Amino acid sequence: MGPGRYGKRVITGGSHSIVGYLTWQDSRKVQRGRDSTVMLWSVHGDGRRVRDGELIGARERLSWPVMAGFGAQHVAAMISATILVPAAVGLPPTTTLLFSGVGTIVFLVITRNRVPGYLGSSFAFMAPLIAAKQHGVAAQLGAVVVAGGILIVFGIAVKALGVRLLESVLPPVVTGGLVLLIGLSMAPHAVRPFEAQPGIGAITIGVILLCLVLARGLLARLSVLVGVAVGWFVAIVTGRIEPAKIDALINAPWVGVPQFHTPELLPSVMVLSVPVVLVLVAEIVAHVKAVSAISGQDLDPSIGDALIANGISTALAGGLGGTGTTAYPANTGLMAATKVLSTAACAMAAVCAVLLAFVPKVAALIDTMPPGVVGGLGIGLFGLLGMLGVRIWSQAKVDLASPVTLMIAGAAVLAGVGDLTVSIWGLELHGVAWGSVVIVVLYPVVRRLRARRDNQGPKFT
């Protein structure tokens, strides 16, 4: 059996020898020899069964019908927020849904199928776009395009300057704090809908927990989809769906084209997008770090690509009528809960979102998702994402006995959860932005001051 197929390959350099098996590039050649397709995902096991606790990697998949179920879970996790944000700021929801799907595909392509993620609407855009509402839709979209452009430049800078610089700016205490901050800052978006229908919310999260605890195999992996379905069904049979939304569902057409708009660049509105970029950077970095914690793989080299991809996605959305995108925290939490990191599931969710954008009837059906279901889902997934930040601290053995570390991390998280809002020179910054500034900027400064005082290396990491 020759080395070109399944044999060993020996690479000798200097005094060292590296013995490795078939590389991924070789497997692509073998696959081309078998048929004309290039394999993007290898089949995990037999493609039908998964052992409890077993991780499905980014480049793995199960059978396509099963992957469709995982994709449906991602749609259920992101759909309400992706529609809510544009509706709140006066932009067409179906257009945002379209570019949410397109942006996710762009994200998977640019990160070379290494980083699973779904790009949904970012809540960071709500405040500046509402403030710019008086200037019209075109001016609002201009702010979105500018934010995307700045993010692309930032991503290119991260790739050019290298991972080591990123590690010096974002040590584990910072990245863990960002993940915790992003997860817990979403609390109002879960608690408020839960309070509207606490019974439905309790049923939703209760079913999810029961599936995770008691079920085995695929039923446990599809726990979120089961919880959403049960909560939604209970809401229907108990008459908890808003009549106005039912009427909208009945009257919605089956086929329709999203509304497209062109942006206008107004300096007075463009400046509102500057603080949003900081939040987007924090959200993307937190997502990549969270996925790294789940998978046990070092994905730092992909952070630059992830930033560029989200910048392109945001610019595309703003260029034609949608709100800016980000790696949606609920989908990150979903990956942590199910241990399914397959990018195939994200790709299927993206295709589904694109199709839904042209089917107003289905979009109206999704809009009938009860607040209790949204709240129960959010409490579980956002909270789980927040705790991944604590896991990052634990794995990196961050010194949580240091009062400086505790105070800075605590202040950042509190600013995010409390949605601290302060205006500076006409720029309104909200909780996640302030929390990110505190932990990203203040922590390295304080660490250096402490090191200078002690005249030795940093005491806390």
Automatic annotation (TrEMBL):
Per UniProt, the keywords (alphabetical) are:
Membrane, Transmembrane, Transmembrane helix, Transport
| Protein location | Membrane
Q: What is its main location?
A: membrane
Q: Which InterPro entries match?
A: NCS2
Q: Which domain of life is it from?
A: Bacteria
This protein's membrane topology, according to the annotation, is: Multi-pass membrane protein
Where exactly are the transmembrane stretches of this chain?
64-85, 91-110, 115-131, 137-157, 169-190, 196-215, 222-241, 265-286, 340-360, 372-393, 424-446
Task: Tell me the protein family, please.
Answer: Belongs to the nucleobase:cation symporter-2 (NCS2) (TC 2.A.40) family.
Write the protein's name.
Uracil-xanthine permease
Q: Which organism is it from?
A: Kibdelosporangium persicum
Q: What is the lineage of its organism?
A: Bacteria, Bacillati, Actinomycetota, Actinomycetes, Pseudonocardiales
